[in-house]
């Protein structure tokens, strides 16, 4: 009898745990595993912001990789960001599945030849309605229990950088009135999402409070709070890793 090999996935963590997330969720790793892991999978954590990366020789043993968000700039030249770009180029050549979220979405774009930078319209924080492009199909990334593809979905956003130009050959899948590239794919293995499908509302609330308290931006907080109150629960299951075996 053939024994099925355990599927392994890696979370490339580009952000340090906040006190709130550690207290409530036990760390961002648990947030991501809850959102994306399937039963029977093994997920490994690499704190790339601390310079911890998987060994090159071990990349082949993983089914897929997720790159988290980060307060750092995807266009920065810190050593770990340059190392990450090299790893992503290697994974692309190996045709490994890679999902990038927020910073991860942006650094994927940079590593594969696109352009990223500061958002011309400034910070985007709160709940944003994103629209799918006309030629968008689900490519098996979403729960097939949905009867039809909705024209728009609401997702948590928290960023001041953005993808300015996707790599040649990549396809824009979604946009919003604030950000031109909310989602893109490159082949069947690369998917970038500007928003945070893994976040719950309370995580966004805590981030907003911390950003306001440390003076990261000046904004009318009542506007943000009202946007959060209007939040419709966004809990679509991504099957990106689990459909393209």
UniProtKB/TrEMBL annotation:
<dbReference type="GO" id="GO:0005829">
    <property type="term" value="C:cytosol"/>
</dbReference>
<keyword id="KW-0378">Hydrolase</keyword>
<keyword id="KW-0963">Cytoplasm</keyword>
<dbReference type="Pfam" id="PF00117">
    <property type="entry name" value="GATase"/>
</dbReference>
<comment type="pathway">
    <text>Secondary metabolite biosynthesis.</text>
</comment>
<comment type="similarity">
    <text>Belongs to the peptidase C26 family.</text>
</comment>
<dbReference type="GO" id="GO:0008233">
    <property type="term" value="F:peptidase activity"/>
</dbReference>
<protein>
    <submittedName>
        <fullName>Gamma-glutamyl peptidase 3-like</fullName>
    </submittedName>
</protein>
<dbReference type="InterPro" id="IPR044992">
    <property type="entry name" value="ChyE-like"/>
</dbReference>
<feature type="domain" description="Glutamine amidotransferase">
    <location>
        <begin position="55"/>
        <end position="200"/>
    </location>
</feature>
<dbReference type="InterPro" id="IPR029062">
    <property type="entry name" value="Class_I_gatase-like"/>
</dbReference>
<dbReference type="GO" id="GO:0019760">
    <property type="term" value="P:glucosinolate metabolic process"/>
</dbReference>
<dbReference type="InterPro" id="IPR017926">
    <property type="entry name" value="GATASE"/>
</dbReference>
């Amino acid at each position: 009898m053939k024994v099925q090999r355990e599927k392994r996935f890696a979370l490339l963590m580009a952000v340090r745990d906040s006190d709130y997330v550690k207290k409530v969720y036990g760390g961002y790793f648990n947030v991501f595993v809850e959102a994306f892991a399937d039963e029977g999978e093994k997920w490994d954590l690499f704190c790339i912001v601390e310079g911890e990366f998987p060994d090159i020789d071990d990349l082949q043993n993983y089914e897929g990789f997720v790159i988290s968000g980060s307060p750092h700039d995807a266009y920065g030249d810190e050593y770990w960001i340059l190392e990450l770009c090299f790893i992503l180029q290697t994974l692309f050549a190996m045709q490994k599945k890679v999902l990038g979220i927020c910073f991860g979405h942006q650094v994927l774009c940079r590593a594969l030849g696109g352009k990223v930078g500061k958002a011309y319209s400034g910070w985007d924080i709160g709940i944003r309605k994103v629209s799918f492009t006309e030629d968008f199909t689900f490519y098996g990334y979403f729960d097939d229990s949905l009867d039809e593809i909705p024209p728009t979905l609401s997702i948590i956003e928290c960023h001041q950088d953005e993808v300015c130009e996707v790599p040649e050959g990549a396809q824009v899948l979604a946009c919003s009135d604030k950000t031109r590239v909310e989602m893109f794919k490159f082949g069947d293995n690369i998917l970038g999402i500007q928003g945070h499908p893994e976040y719950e509302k309370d995580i966004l609330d805590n981030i907003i409070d911390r950003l306001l308290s440390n003076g990261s931006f000046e904004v009318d907080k009542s506007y943000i709070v009202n946007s959060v109150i209007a939040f419709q629960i966004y809990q679509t299951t991504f099957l990106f890793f689990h459909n393209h075996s």
